[in-house]
UniProtKB/TrEMBL annotation:
One Pfam family matching this protein: 2-Hacid_dh
Protein name: Hydroxyacid dehydrogenase
Lineage: Bacteria, Bacillati, Actinomycetota, Actinomycetes, Kitasatosporales
Domain of life of the source: Bacteria
Keyword set, alphabetical order: NAD, Oxidoreductase
Annotated coiled-coil segments of the chain: none
Family membership: Belongs to the D-isomer specific 2-hydroxyacid dehydrogenase family.
Transmembrane segments: none
Domain D-isomer specific 2-hydroxyacid dehydrogenase catalytic, chain residue ranges per copy: 8-327
Keyword Oxidoreductase attached: yes
InterPro entries: D-isomer_2_OHA_DH_cat_dom, D-isomer_DH_CS, D-isomer_DH_CS1, D-isomer_DH_NAD-bd, D-LDH-like, NAD(P)-bd_dom_sf
Ranges for domain D-isomer specific 2-hydroxyacid dehydrogenase NAD-binding: 110-296
GO molecular function: D-lactate dehydrogenase (NAD+) activity; NAD binding
Length: 331
């Protein structure tokens, strides 16, 4: 059987091809799965997708009509998949339940340190042989307060690094993590965390309950000189409200690896096109904002684990086995 993989990055392709070697043939495409590209999958019983592939009603119906019966999502998040529709169509959907939490946690800290110490601005200056320090002053994080929204595996890894910096630890989650408690984290209400934290980092999944977790009111509750980092899901932050706060001169720095309207933009080369998204276009103009294109997970370790789990999900499906990765079981 040949598996069709959509949205495959150049660095990811050899990992996927090696992982499936000896099991099944895999055809990798760099295009993302959309209503326009879904007909390409005709005749492929199994399709693999990435987090920015849209699997809404129309796409799923096209896939089902073309013979696709299994979708192997190469990500932990699955808010891009209409699971009830997939179930009605008799399609099995599996995801990667977990991968290296250090990849995302370490990158979140990369963003935090980059905006705090003005690394991008400094690098741009030195390329022009401008070696002044004006405007590059940062702050020690040692002794300051970090607020971690979401203390699952990634949030815990982020917290361990914060503990190494010698920071005061505040956490918010529906369930407390014993390991974070042991590190000295105090769990508080979200409002208290936002009001006291010098650095706020988001590590929660995107669900209806967490959509715009940081809305206009929550952003206003943060310190004027706080640092905000989001390496989880773009929809957790009301970006229009964030832009409004930045226009008021608030926040020492904002590091975003995700954006709520990133589908159709991130992972693609848009450098020769006019960007119609006015919010994103304005966001990237702020000197204290750093935007990267959903690369926090993108390490050899994490991608290798993602690909390995994807292969196991496919083999489990063909063998009639079910694991914790299955979101919609085989009918």
């Amino acid at each position: 059987m040949e598996i069709l993989a959509f949205g495959v990055q150049a660095d990811e392709r050899p990992l996927i091809e090696r992982a499936f070697a000896g099991h099944h043939d895999v055809h990798c495409l760099d295009v993302f799965l959309t209503e326009d590209t879904a007909p390409i999958a005709r005749g492929h019983g199994i399709v693999s997708t990435s987090v920015n592939c849209g699997l809404g009603d129309g796409v799923l119906r096209t896939l089902a009509a073309g013979g696709t019966r299994m979708i192997a999502q190469r990500s932990t998040g699955f808010n891009n998949v209409d699971l009830p529709v997939a179930e009605r169509l008799g399609m099995t959907v599996a995801r990667v339940s977990s991968y290296s939490p250090y990849s995302v946690a370490e990158f979140a800290w990369t963003l935090a340190m980059a905006v705090n110490r003005r690394v991008v601005r400094a690098s741009t200056r030195t390329r022009d042989f401008d070696f002044r320090l004006d405007g590059l002053m940062g702050r020690d994080l040692h002794g300051r307060t970090v607020g971690v929204l979401g203390t699952g595996k990634i949030g815990e890894a982020f917290t361990r690094i914060a503990h190494g910096f010698g920071m005061r630890l505040l956490g918010w989650d529906v369930a407390e993590d014993p390991a974070c408690r042991d590190l000295g984290m105090a769990y508080v209400a979200k409002e208290e965390l936002l009001a006291e934290a010098d650095l706020v980092s988001l590590h929660v999944p995107l669900m209806p309950e967490t959509q715009h977790l940081l809305d206009a009111a929550a952003l206003k509750a943060m310190k004027d000189d706080a640092i905000l980092v989001n390496s989880s899901r773009g929809g957790l932050v009301d970006t229009a409200a964030l832009v409004a706060e930045l226009r008021e001169g608030r926040f020492t720095g904002v590091g975003l690896d995700v954006y709520e309207a990133e589908a159709g933009l991130f992972f693609l080369d848009k450098s020769l096109e006019a960007i119609a998204d006015d919010t994103l276009a304005r966001l990237v103009t702020f000197p204290n904002v750093l935007v990267t294109s959903h690369q926090a997970y993108y390490t050899e370790d994490a991608v290798g684990q993602i690909v390995g789990t994807t292969v196991r999900n496919v083999l489990d499906y063909l063998a009639g086995r079910r694991s914790e990765n299955v979101l919609v079981p085989r009918s």
